């Protein structure tokens, strides 16, 4: 039996057979590079039926062939017996190939990655020649090396091959890349690593620059630690090599033609990046530590290690604009925000945008593997609506997460970076005590991103010298680790000593670097040279038209009827030969009638005309959500599908992309099943693109629950904390239809609780004309505030919620709609009912049934900012009304009641009484039984028109 067949229990066989894949890839490149018996086997693949019964060709898909290898490996049925004369040469050559494959797969496990040297090297027999029956006698024999990149020669001794493998994969850099399915990518990484044996080649000046950056990284931390004792700063000490890494990333980005970097990172090392990378003046940072810094009149402001910054940095390839995103304490939540901002900047630049704008995300080890938004954001990477051409991820790996943690408690994976394998991103693990290796890995990572437009990770394995923050005593929970940390001389000292031994610097020159940096700190001078102060980026957005604006409801949102009819014709026309579904055909026919003024407009048509008018006027529209093309309730139909073709065959037509020859882009995206990442992405996009209408739509309003961090930390408070404006629109379907608790409520009360400082708009429109004017108002007004719209469900098709075309050609969005029934005499009104949303239609229907003509009904369409002036004018119309009742569908402890009562009280006259009519307080958003839903609806309507009950406030 051949040695190949005898090895069924080895690493080579079983479920993966990696060496066969390596051999096959080498065979595809050069059939003569593999042993004869394997070449004969692979040749058979060209002429025998493949797995699916189809004859194979040289160009057949790679993955099915590899799967067939795995199946044959499990069956221990790879090759016919090799001739006995072939065993000594061909058999051992196969084993040599297996060793090479093993190091590519598993070499990272033996890499010298830990600066603290706390972990013993694991036993991995597959990395030892003896595992394959190779002995010392085989070490100096010559074998083929044509499928490696160690040398240009075709042969090497086994000793040379093993040494090259260990030098490449087992020193300061450990690489994981064999999980990538694309053989082109694997060969590219092999070539880059093996041709250099993962050894940096830096000139003396480059090494001095690395030392300078290490000195700056360490120097800032020690200066702050001495001058501001005990203040939190989330020190970078122990991870100083991150500063040379980010420096090299930006410098090399310029060489690669990248003109903008959008950077997101949490707290650790952030102050260091601000000063030593982005060029923030040290004196400004010191003022923040001393509590003297003024943020220019922000309503709230934020702590120093949350703040963003931007600067233009001179690089080896030209100016690069770097924007550090503002980041709250929710760590990885900044990830999708950065991706959205990068996508907006890329689209602004057109076809080359993906090459010119680079997103960079900096992670902590525990948060990277622990927080779900990381996975959600990674899942955006290669999608059409959210891809950014690849992100470079840098991990500051403390090996411990928070200083009380143990990796056994913080993850179920070997590495904190294993989550990226879901998108087949390569990972470069690198020892933080080898700054040259860190620079090498960073440069390679950027080259990979430029070459393949995909994500890649540099995992800088380091430690945290001072604990999670400077008030911690980490030795309480990690005594042995922090004993070693206390003995560690510091990366800067180690590197300075190394350069002195190499003769790159003098024996005392390392200390001179320290003194020079200290002098710069004392004088508050820049520590980065040069930061450009007069560079003008032609792609920068001018936010000045939107700044310093006072709140106003003004905005000419009406459109001439002739233009509305023209737009209506364009958005209801499909190309010749395009077959739409009969249901959609009926929708389009009705919309044509609406555009001609023959029918009232429904909600979907109001939306469509708003979008069409905006793109025709030069405002791009971006609408995303999990079912936004069709609409969750099939009301939108923005994307039409040819019934004779699949979508994959481009069988779609988007009328809103064809309203005029010079229109702005309209894009509607059916998003992946994520709320947090997608909403964060759209927020980031909106902060970089004020001239686009950016909308995130939940399938149901309660889907926003999954993105509450984005709402709390960015949308509602970003302007108050950071002066960061956004015009993002949230569309949240909301309405009590008797369909159970989960999707009835968009949680109006949560948004209203967040309202202050005119930070956002919360509205609940009830007609097609209202949604038309509201969406147009969002862009036409010269300020940008987030807009939360509680959109209806049943009202999408309720004829009473329709609007004549004339309502779009006059007027504007009404923050409060007054009584519209002609039979109501204001002088006879004794009670005024106020409500918001769909319940209005239930109330007016009940009033009609009861003949209660002494009751007026007002609709509050904008809940925040509350329309006090309009309400004052309406109350004056009813001088004899003694009772004011707020009516809502939601339970009493939810909805608008607790928010709105003080606003109503403020507008009431002396002696008037205020009461509530609605469902009783409930732990659930709604009941699950339809019969009980109807009982509650009847009860709240009886309460609205009957005697005042419950708590009654008298002014």
TrEMBL record:
Its cofactor is thiamine diphosphate. It holds the Pfam family 2-oxogl_dehyd_N. Keywords: Glycolysis, Oxidoreductase, Thiamine pyrophosphate. The keyword NADP does not apply. SMART domains: Transket_pyr. One of its GO terms (biological process) is glycolytic process. PANTHER family: 2-OXOADIPATE DEHYDROGENASE COMPLEX COMPONENT E1, 2-OXOGLUTARATE DEHYDROGENASE. This is 2-oxoglutarate dehydrogenase E1 component. It comes from Pigmentiphaga humi. The gene is sucA.
